[in-house]
């Protein structure tokens, strides 16, 4: 379902519920103002013709957006989120838009001149390489011209004092030309030094000085040109992320692509969630202002021959488990994605992208941009104009993001997806049942099964009970009492529960292992 399908399926009554719409909703409303009210096909219009008209209008809109938006770039999208961050003054660790990947953290406590001085003195070469190219060229010109003038003044003063020390000098211009010829080893032959030691030493010193500054600037410019920083601009990371269900499993998704013919070597993608909130206080009383937790990713295709939607499974082990858009905004969460790889020349490069809660679309997936080669063609195609675009999943009506996020977290398909190779297909019920048998005995039961029968040759079930208790001070020894006091005088014990049915050889049918109560 495309943008226009979602627009016509939505209800206009939700517009009054929330004023700060997300980028996806604002773009949808923008498109509705561009289209004629009678765009929806009449009842007599064939479905195929209506679908074609809708697709053509959608494609024209995408082309106008790319052509008419001066902020649109291939790797950084429309620039809407950057503008939204600046307009609403949203704090973030990394920049967006033209400043994507750059740190926005401000250091203070000392004078900024001390920081700049420390960086230039302790890390001169790296700082010079990362400077803008026009600044490097301007600095090089200024240094060389200053050197020419400095040595020309010295030679001119010596010539004025003793005219025999230089041959062919007539004015300051002669001294300036001699300085240029000496520093660049030109030697036109019209200017030379006489039989004087002082000019001879000065010429030698100038030659050594010229070698040093030329080596520095040649090294900086060469490193600047060969730096793989530009290679990172050919790695596309979607400007927004999605949280939706795939085969009933809740996923965080973002899209990555490499648009060069020779793709990156050994790419690695990492995702980290920064959670501010109220901080965390350790048992020792230390206050940790920011909670930083990694998000394990499922990287499907390391060759990057086609765009890849990278997934993070949101389960009980995920930092995103149980969160909605409202809770993420309340915590000031930010997800930072880092892409690392090696170019074909062996240089390591890196690019980053961050997502604020308002830049994560719930119940949406990325628009399909991969087009298989048609009959008679030998090349598959990628529609990069819609690389950053998302669309809602079928069945989700147009509603404010906080309501969509709740529906996505609580909902989910009930059908069991086909497993992948090596995937765990065992199922465990969410709840325990306490029941009584016909003879009056009580049981604790849980249902276990296999989503795909005959996948397991043999399986076993074990059950443990953990008891958390608060012990009295008299029951502790001296050593144990100190440990219990540090833990709030709480301890726990665990015990394996004997099962009446815990082993089976045919996993074709679910069964209920039971534990008999005494």
List keywords for this structure.
alpha+beta, five-stranded mixed sheet, 518 residues, 26 strands, four-stranded antiparallel sheet
Can you put this structure into words, describing what you see?
This protein has 518 residues and is of the alpha+beta class. The chain has helices at 3-9, 23-34, 47-68, 80-88, 112-122, 124-129, 133-161, 172-183, 197-226, 325-331, 401-410, 478-486; strands spanning 166-167, 192-193, 235-237, 241-246, 249-258, 265-275, 280-281, 287-288, 291-294, 308-313, 334-342, 348-355, 360-362, 364-366, 370-371, 381-382, 390-392, 426-428, 433-436, 442-445, 448-450, 459-460, 463-470, 490-497, 503-504, 514-516. Strands 3, 4, 5, 10 and 13 form a five-stranded mixed β-sheet that branches. A four-stranded antiparallel β-sheet has the order 9-6-11-12, with no helix packed on it. Residues 1-45, 478-487 and 502-509 have low confidence and may be disordered.
């Amino acid at each position: 379902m495309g943008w226009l399908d979602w627009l016509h399926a939505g209800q206009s009554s939700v517009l009054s519920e929330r004023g700060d719409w997300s980028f996806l909703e604002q773009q949808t409303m923008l498109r509705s103002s561009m289209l004629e009210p009678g765009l929806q096909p009449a009842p007599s219009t064939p479905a195929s013709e209506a679908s074609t008209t809708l697709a053509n209008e959608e494609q024209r809109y995408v082309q106008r957006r790319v052509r008419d938006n001066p902020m649109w770039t291939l790797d950084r999208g429309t620039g809407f989120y950057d503008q939204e961050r600046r307009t609403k003054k949203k704090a973030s660790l990394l920049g967006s838009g033209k400043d994507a990947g750059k740190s926005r953290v401000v250091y203070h406590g000392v004078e900024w001149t001390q920081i700049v001085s420390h960086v230039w003195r302790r890390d001169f070469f790296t700082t010079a390489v990362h400077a803008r190219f026009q600044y490097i060229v301007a600095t090089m010109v200024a240094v060389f011209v200053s050197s020419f003038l400095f040595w020309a003044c010295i030679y001119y003063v010596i010539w004025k004092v003793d005219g025999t020390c230089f041959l062919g000098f007539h004015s300051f211009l002669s001294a300036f030309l001699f300085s240029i010829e000496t520093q660049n080893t030109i030697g036109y032959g019209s200017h030379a030094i006489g039989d004087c030691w002082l000019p001879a030493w000065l010429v030698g010193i100038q030659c050594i000085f010229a070698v040093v500054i030329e080596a520095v600037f040649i090294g900086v410019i060469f490193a600047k040109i060969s730096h793989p920083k530009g290679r990172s601009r050919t790695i596309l990371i979607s400007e927004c992320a999605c949280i939706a269900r795939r085969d009933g499993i809740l996923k965080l998704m973002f899209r990555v692509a490499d648009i060069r013919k020779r793709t990156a070597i050994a790419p690695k993608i990492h995702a980290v969630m920064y959670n501010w909130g109220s901080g965390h206080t350790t048992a020792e009383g230390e206050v940790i202002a920011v909670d930083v937790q990694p998000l394990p990713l499922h990287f499907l295709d390391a060759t990057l021959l086609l765009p890849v939607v990278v997934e993070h499974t949101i389960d009980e082990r995920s930092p995103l488990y149980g969160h909605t858009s409202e809770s993420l905004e309340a915590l000031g969460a930010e997800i930072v994605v880092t892409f690392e790889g090696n170019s074909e020349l062996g240089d390591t490069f890196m690019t980053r992208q961050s997502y604020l809660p308002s830049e994560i679309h719930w119940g949406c997936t990325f628009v399909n941009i991969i087009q298989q080669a048609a009959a008679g063609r030998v090349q598959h195609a990628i529609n990069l104009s819609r690389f950053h675009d998302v669309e809602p999943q079928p069945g989700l009506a147009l509603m404010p993001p906080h309501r969509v996020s709740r529906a996505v977290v609580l909902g989910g398909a009930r059908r069991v997806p086909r497993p992948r190779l090596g995937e765990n297909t065992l199922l465990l019920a969410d709840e325990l049942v306490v029941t009584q048998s016909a003879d009056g005995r009580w049981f604790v039961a849980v249902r276990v099964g296999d989503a795909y029968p005959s996948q397991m040759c043999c399986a076993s079930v074990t059950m443990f009970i953990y008891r958390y208790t608060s012990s009295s001070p008299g029951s502790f020894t001296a050593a144990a009492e100190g440990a219990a006091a540090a833990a709030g005088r709480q301890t726990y014990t665990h015990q394996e529960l004997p099962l009446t049915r815990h082993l089976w050889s045919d996993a074709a049918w679910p069964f209920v292992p039971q534990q008999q109560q005494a």
